[in-house]
Design brief:
single chain, mainly alpha, 8 helices, 160 residues
Length: 160
């Protein structure tokens, strides 16, 4: 069977209607828009975490219960690392907040020993040094290696 020009055009229209739309051509404008959107999402998340921390701190200052201390620390731990804000906390709370930031970084390379190594680092260094480790992956990896060496030496000493 032979189709006329109108029949071929009709089939072409039907086929075109059943195909998924072609993806838009990638261009620098689309990439820039996507990057801008990602930056806006990240900024909104940071603002949200900061607002939660501020609200919890205000509740605590207004005479809130001890549960608000935990909420404040969780909000600070979820927020971007702010050395000034951490310095305002009591020493034990500084260690807790820094431990919350430090643990996942250590767990990425040493999941079984992350808790032990986190505790070792928190007990051995001041808060500003811990902040440096959190911000500097190479320095953190060096301290993890040192902690592993200490743990290995201790294990050997226990066997003797």
């Amino acid at each position: 069977m032979r189709l006329g020009s109108s029949g071929a055009a009709a089939i072409a229209c039907i086929v075109a209607a059943t195909l998924p739309p072609a993806p838009p051509a990638a261009c620098c404008c689309a990439a820039a828009a996507q990057q801008q959107q990602q930056q806006q999402v990240a900024a909104a998340q940071q603002q949200q975490a900061a607002a939660a921390a501020a609200a919890a701190a205000q509740q605590q200052a207004a005479g809130g219960a001890g549960g608000n201390v935990a909420a404040t620390m969780q909000a600070i731990a979820a927020a971007p690392l702010d050395p000034k804000r951490i310095a305002e906390l009591p020493a034990d709370q500084q260690k807790m907040v820094l431990g919350e930031k430090l643990y996942p970084l250590i767990a990425a390379s040493q999941p079984k020993l992350a808790g032990k190594i986190t505790g070792m680092l928190l007990d051995s260094y001041f808060s500003d040094e811990i902040i440096h480790l959190i911000e500097t992956p190479d320095a953190l990896n060096a301290k993890i290696a040192e902690a592993l060496a200490v743990l290995e030496q201790h294990a050997k000493a226990q066997k003797e």
